[in-house]
Design a protein that fits this description.
The complex is a heterodimer of chains A (454) and B (482). In chain A, the strands form 4 sheets. Chain A has a 6-stranded parallel beta sheet, with helices on both faces. A 6-stranded parallel beta sheet of chain A has the order 14-13-12-15-16-17, with helices on both faces. Chain A has a 5-stranded antiparallel beta sheet with strand order 7-8-11-9-10. In chain A, helix 1 runs parallel beside helix 14 and helix 6 crosses helix 14. By secondary structure, chain A is of the alpha/beta class. In chain A, 31% of the residues lie in helices and 25% in strands. The longest helix of chain A has 14 residues. Chain A is globular and about 65 Å long. Chain B contains 23 helices and 2 strands. Chain B has a two-stranded antiparallel sheet. Chain B is mostly helical and 482 residues long. In chain B, helix 4 packs across helix 6, helix 7 packs parallel to helix 11 and helix 15 crosses helix 16. Chain B starts with a helix and ends with a helix. Chain B is 64% helix and 1% strand. The longest helix of chain B is centred in the last third of the chain and has 27 residues. Classes of the chains: A alpha/beta (454), B mainly alpha (482). The interface between A and B is medium-sized, with 16 and 14 residues.
Chain lengths: 454, 482
């Protein structure tokens, strides 16, 4: 499969390396020769230096043979232009564009049906706001993802030293707590990802990933001694597009929201559009301002400015001044491993969200949702079990599931089955698979139909 | 630098080389000559060395090869391949010292074609086949071949490819390096096959046809005959060889485009036009220069002039005439051709036309800006502006090339070799041509070069084949610092 990526920024770069590892043919186009050099030095892909919205460059990059075009430059206009040109030259190519400006929100459908025929428009800001909202509401969660149209939730939490379950074997959870344990699909211990079995013990400091039904989420969390605290007061630092979206969402939840923004013009725009939220003009990293606004009484402080270093420092400052929980937006992937080390566990990244969403559209087989976790070490996928694929009709223990992969949930009609070795997947079940990076190509293979009958 | 990892990969390359020795062994067995034992012994040594390197340096899973490691693998790997490739020669009876065998082997792999042998026809057929076959392996690049067919390299293949096939303006034919390497080798093998067919049609036997195709396509120049192509003394063979030398001197991505149904690819490429135009011009000049003075008819002057110009400019190094008897002007043009070389992305050596073109354009730009001090001018190739850093790296390359040429010439001359021989032997080895002038002219060989001089020339051949940077970087102290 040939994929053409326009834009060699952080998103383009990571998608390219992700796909190249999976042996897909990737061509990356970018205007900036330094960005192109970074790609060609590090990833086994073809590169073309030039504007991605130029027909000549797209032809040179081989748009006609490409199955998918990903327009992920930082400029919405370039992305739209690239899709438009691609539509003219090669109408059969599937087009996916990242478009962030809120003004385009209402036009996604129109763009699909008319002129540029963009098959999917990705706005990572929307995804990020959703993730932040989840992180705020799920106590202790450092990662949250939705599957099965939101009926299943995938959560990552750290196990505290004081928790009942620390040092307990997975198979003993029921006898210890008297509650049925959610399915623990992975544990990250000392930067290493393990797929645990019944005899494994949980340790304090483990990052535990589990899947739970949405309605029983709070109960599942209580097993890990995470108590739900009501969310009343939120402070948002940075009133950009994500800050604004989040503030309006919180207004709907009737949460007291304060939003701090440096730019006075932007402040007045925010004040015009928001009704209940308090818009404050000032620098979020200013200690006086934070104290004045009672940062210590906030339930959550969210730092969302465009400058990630400012976000990190402001979050640290807020924590030091007494804020119980912070959520930090960062973009640079190289910072991810540092964050938990300096005590910032709740982190969101629009770029990671964009990558997740895009991967979902590239996966072969009928993959309905995908989320990569732990700095892309593993991926959780929701897929439709196709009638002719390898996984259907046999008990799970007889299927050659690749090493490092685990079927963690089966949804049949409206029931959710937590599978055992005896479970049989029926056609049209939706299954949730957890897979380490190395196992993804094989997982894709078993999900795909053996022969396409169309 | 993870040396255990680097040595592990080199072990695999050596193992691969050992397997390649099966082919000459087959010919040796077929002709039942004395090459069987040395070949079998060398194969044993090579396989055992490769396997033990691999076992000793078992590697942890590596996903990424750094730029530096890529260069180290290629530079050390090529030296090792030259070393093990020398065993069949050394264990046979024709080479008295190991350095002679090593020289012959490196000359083969680097597609130089300079030989130590005085009487080639006396050598057994199995060894002569190995001598031709290593040129074929080295022409498109043995590491490129292993990237294409061995599964072990994976992601790191790209760094190796870049170090073995350095090109001022890199072009990848396919998104993945492995596919690119496969295509290049397929095109290369296909054209070689066509040449074998043409040679067979002219009445050459299969063995000679294979050996000559294996040394024409990589622009190598080893022949199985003492008198090189002149042995056959046939206009047909001269023509076939000229055409295929020219093909080998053209960027292989153009051949690929041509085969994919774009017949105008050659014409559209400005480097290809420059290359063919220059060759034509030089042929005309040489023909007029040798007509009347050496040859009585224009036809003969053209036949020998064209063959020699093409042979030298593509850095093949076959001979049909003793050009040392030609007028000084023609000899000098041939010496110039050694520096010019063939196209980038071809199997030829030398400085490469693309770099010379860029250099000339750069000179013009400098002159232009003397006239118009405020002019903004970009250097363009084929209508596309060339990035500044590429221009800079090309200028650096030209400087290093000339500098290393001068340095090595001084070394050779310092060993008591005469001036013309010193200049020509270094030019012929650093450009991977083969025969030079003077003591190393087309009718002589490199046996008389002093012992140390052979080491210098071996070094020159590796420098030329890997286009300077990959080899010279090993001498830079910064390269070894952590």
């Amino acid at each position: 499969m040939k994929v053409l990526i326009v834009g060699a920024g952080e998103v383009g770069f990571h998608i390219a390396s992700h796909l190249a590892r999976e042996n897909k043919d990737v061509v990356v186009v970018d205007k900036d020769s330094a960005a192109i050099r970074r790609v060609s030095d590090n990833i086994d892909v073809q590169v073309v230096n030039g504007s991605g919205s130029s027909p000549v460059i797209l032809q040179e990059a081989g748009i006609k043979e490409a199955e998918i075009l990903l327009a992920v430059t930082d400029s919405d206009e370039t992305n739209l232009g690239a899709c438009l040109v691609a539509d003219l030259i090669s109408p059969s190519t599937k087009k996916i564009a990242r478009i962030r400006h809120a003004d385009y929100d209402g036009y996604h459908e129109i763009f699909r049906e008319q002129a540029p025929h963009i098959d999917t428009i990705i706005n990572p800001d929307i995804e990020v706001v959703k993730t932040i909202h989840w992180l705020m509401n799920v106590p202790g969660a450092v990662e949250v993802g939705e599957f099965a149209d939101g009926r299943l939730v995938f959560v990552g939490i750290y196990l505290d030293g004081s928790a009942r379950l620390s040092g307990v074997r997975l198979s003993d959870i029921y006898s210890r707590t008297g509650k049925k344990s959610p399915l623990i699909s992975a544990v990250v211990r000392e930067e290493e990802l393990i797929i645990p079995r019944g005899k494994h013990r949980l340790k304090a400091g483990d990052l535990i990933y589990f899947i739970s039904k949405k309605e029983s989420l709070m109960e599942s969390l209580s097993i890990f001694d995470k108590q739900v605290e009501p969310l009343n007061r939120v402070m948002i630092v940075g009133g950009g597009s994500i800050g604004f979206r989040l503030a309006s969402l919180l207004e709907g939840d009737s949460v007291h929201t304060k939003i701090i923004e440096k730019n006075p013009d932007r402040c007045s725009t925010l004040a015009e559009s928001l009704n209940k939220a308090v818009v404050l003009h000032g620098d979020g990293s200013n200690q006086e301002l934070l104290r004045e606004e009672n940062v210590q009484d906030m339930d959550v402080v969210v730092t969302l400015t465009d400058d990630e270093e400012t976000n990190i420092l402001t979050s640290l400052l807020a924590k030091r001044m007494g804020a119980p929980k912070t959520i930090t937006k960062i973009s640079k992937f190289s910072y991810f491993p540092l964050m938990s080390m300096i005590g910032l566990e709740q982190v969101v990244s629009p770029r990671l969200s964009a990558i997740n969403t895009i991967l979902l559209h590239i996966r072969t087989g009928k993959v309905l949702a995908a989320k990569s976790i732990k700095g892309e070490q593993a991926e959780v996928m929701e897929a439709l079990a196709l009638e002719t694929s390898d996984i259907v009709g046999k008990p799970l223990k007889e299927i050659a599931i690749p090493r490092g992969a685990l079927v963690t949930g089966i949804m049949r009609e409206n029931r959710i089955i937590i599978p055992t070795g005896e479970s049989v997947i029926a056609p049209n079940d939706r299954i949730i698979i957890f897979a380490k990076k190395q196992a993804i190509p094989q997982v894709e293979k078993i999900l795909a139909v053996k022969l396409e009958y169309f | 630098m993870r040396w255990s990892f680097i040595l592990n990969i080199i072990g695999m390359l050596i193992l691969f080389l050992g397997m390649c020795m099966l082919f000459p062994l087959f010919f040796g067995l077929y002709y039942r000559d004395q090459s069987v034992i040395p070949l079998a012994q060398s194969m044993g040594i090579t396989l055992a060395s490769g396997a033990s390197l691999m076992v000793v340096f078992r590697r942890e899973k590596v996903e990424h090869i750094s730029h530096r490691e890529g260069m180290a693998i290629v530079a050390v790997g090529w030296t090792a391949i030259g070393f093990f490739g020398a065993f069949p020669f050394y264990l046979g009876s024709e080479f008295s010292t190991f350095v002679d065998a090593f020289f012959e082997s490196v000359s083969g792999f680097t597609t130089t074609g300079s030989s130590i042998l005085t009487n080639i026809e006396a050598v057994s057929k199995g060894l002569l086949f190995w001598r031709s076959f290593i040129q074929w392996l080295g022409g498109m690049g043995i590491i490129v071949l292993s990237v294409a067919i061995l599964p072990f390299l994976g992601v790191g293949g790209m760094q190796l490819y870049k170090a073995e096939v350095p090109s001022p303006v890199p072009d990848k034919l396919k998104p993945r390096i492995r596919d690119t390497a496969k295509i290049l080798w397929k095109v290369y093998a296909l054209i070689s096959l066509v040449q074998v067919l043409f040679l067979l049609l002219g009445g050459m036997d299969l063995y000679d046809a294979l050996c000559h195709a294996f040394t024409t396509m990589p622009t190598g120049g080893f022949s199985t005959k003492n008198a090189s192509i002149a042995h056959f003394d046939s206009v047909y063979f001269d023509t076939v060889v000229i055409v295929f030398m020219l093909l080998a001197g053209i960027n292989f991505s153009l051949h690929y485009q041509f085969l994919r149904g774009k017949p105008l690819a050659f014409w559209r490429d400005s480097e290809c036009r420059f290359f063919l135009g220059t060759v034509l011009l030089l042929i005309v000049v040489v023909t007029f220069n040798i007509y009347g003075t050496v040859y009585e008819t224009v036809g003969r002057a053209f036949r020998y002039g064209a063959f020699q110009v093409v042979s030298i400019v593509t850095t093949t190094g076959y001979a049909t005439a003793d050009y040392e008897r030609w007028p000084a002007m023609s000899q000098f043009i041939l010496l110039l051709c050694m520096f010019l070389g063939a196209s980038a992305g071809s199997t030829g050596g030398g400085m490469k036309c693309l770099r010379v073109m860029l250099y000339l354009k750069y000179c013009y730009k400098e002159l232009f800006s003397l006239v118009h001090p405020r002019a903004v001018k970009r250097i363009k190739i084929g209508g596309r502006a060339v990035p500044e850093d590429v221009v800079r790296s090309v200028l650096g390359f030209m400087g290093l090339y000339v500098g290393l040429f001068v340095f090595s010439t001084v070394l050779i001359a310092g060993m008591g070799v005469d001036l013309v021989t010193s200049i020509a032997s270094v030019a012929a080895t650093i450009g991977n041509i083969g025969p030079g002038l003077g003591m190393v002219g087309p009718t002589d060989n490199f046996a008389q070069i002093p012992y140390l001089g052979k080491w210098v020339l071996i070094w020159c051949m590796l420098l030329g084949r890997l286009e300077i940077y990959t080899v010279i970087i090993l001498l830079v102290p910064e390269f070894w610092r952590k």
